[in-house]
Specification:
With about 120 residues, the chain is of the alpha/beta class. Helix content is about 35%, strand content about 25%.
């Protein structure tokens, strides 16, 4: 983001995500940093509620922002398995939806070893 065009694109993408978050019930306020926007659902303890919330968030972001999510597995800092749905905005900004692995269906492409979350 050292060039002005990249900087403007990043801001446009962040503003688009925040507009959707403001206008649509079901999306928590995301964590925003230079490389990604993260919607955390890992605090929901009831599996059915977590799965429903994640599916709703993915549907909202897919339809309003035209994103296509892929699913990957990772370990959180406390060694809790997570499934992360990841998509990318035009500027390259990653959009992540994070949930506990036990609360969401397993991705088919996940290898037996889980990668650590950075």
């Amino acid at each position: 983001m050292s060039d002005l065009a990249g900087h403007a694109g990043w801001f446009n993408d962040v503003h688009a995500v925040l507009r959707v978050t403001e206008c649509r019930a079901g999306l928590p306020l995301p964590h925003i940093c230079a490389e990604r926007v993260t919607f955390h659902f890992n605090g929901i303890t009831h599996a059915a509620d977590a799965a429903e919330s994640v599916a709703r968030a993915e549907a909202i972001l897919t339809t309003t922002l035209g994103l296509t999510f892929t699913l990957r597995a990772a370990l959180a800092g406390d060694d809790t398995p997570r499934f992360i749905r990841e998509a990318f905005m035009p500027s390259g900004l990653a959009i992540d939806i994070v949930a506990r692995a036990e609360h969401t269906p397993a991705p088919r492409e996940v290898a037996p070893g889980l990668a650590a979350v950075a």
